[in-house]
Amino acid sequence: MAGEQDKADETPKPAGPVVEMVPEGDNRLRMVCTDCGFIHYRNPLVVVGAVCAWEGRILLCRRAIDPRRGYWTIPAGYLELKETTQHGAAREAWEEAGARIAPEDVLAVYSIPRLSQVQVIYRAPLMSPDIEAGPESLEVGLFGWSEIPWEDLAFPSVRWALDHYRSYLESGDPTPRGNPPGETGRY
């Protein structure tokens, strides 16, 4: 019916003051309403992205926003509500690089506990080489392996994803990767 809000969109809210405490039956500090007992759970954020390729060249975006403004990254960002991870990766590629992609299999899942992030990265061929910088990118480009600005990559997980993509190309093994050995994601 017109004008009715989808009940799934309603976010519960506390009725009164909120304090940090360990709720009954829990073992972690949480934000709890002292009037109604509402518990505000804060959970990790999901980042989605893709290593996008066109004829052996990799799409990279030079960041126009902080953190790491001016450094290069793969197209990636936060998953939106009611969005699949594949759709989110495709949306991010479009927003950051005007790129149309076809996400295939999951390349890797990285755990970054310091940032409370889980990153889901896909392999995704570009549907065409037509790309352009979006509002979050200073510039975009397609890079051969020897042209990638390795010293100017924005985050360790970008290097991990590129390394894992190259490993996939060399081995043909589509098994999703994770944090490299010794990398706990505490950057």
Q: What is the CATH architecture term of the largest domain? A: Alpha-Beta Complex
The helicity comes to 10-25%
Principal-axes geometry comes out as elongated
Structural class: alpha+beta
Secondary structure tally: strands: 10
Quote the distance from N terminus to C terminus.
48 Å
Count up the helices.
2
* CATH-level-4 superfamily name of the largest domain: Nucleoside Triphosphate Pyrophosphohydrolase
Along the chain, the helix and strand elements come as EEEEEEEHEEEH
Q: What is the CATH class designation of the largest domain?
A: Alpha Beta
Strand content: 25-35%
Mean pLDDT score: 92
Description of the structure:
By secondary structure, the protein is α+β, with helices and mostly antiparallel strands. It folds into two domains: 13-40, Ubiquitin Ligase Nedd4, Chain: W, CATH 2.20.70; 45-171, Nucleoside Triphosphate Pyrophosphohydrolase. It has helices spanning 85-97, 156-171, and strands at 18-21, 30-33, 39-40, 45-54, 57-63, 72-73, 76-78, 106-112, 117-125, 137-143. Strands 4, 5, 6, 7, 8, 9 and 10 form a seven-stranded mixed sheet that branches. A hairpin with an 8-residue loop joins strand 1 (18-21) and strand 2. The longest helix is centred in the C-terminal third of the chain and has 16 residues, at 156-171.
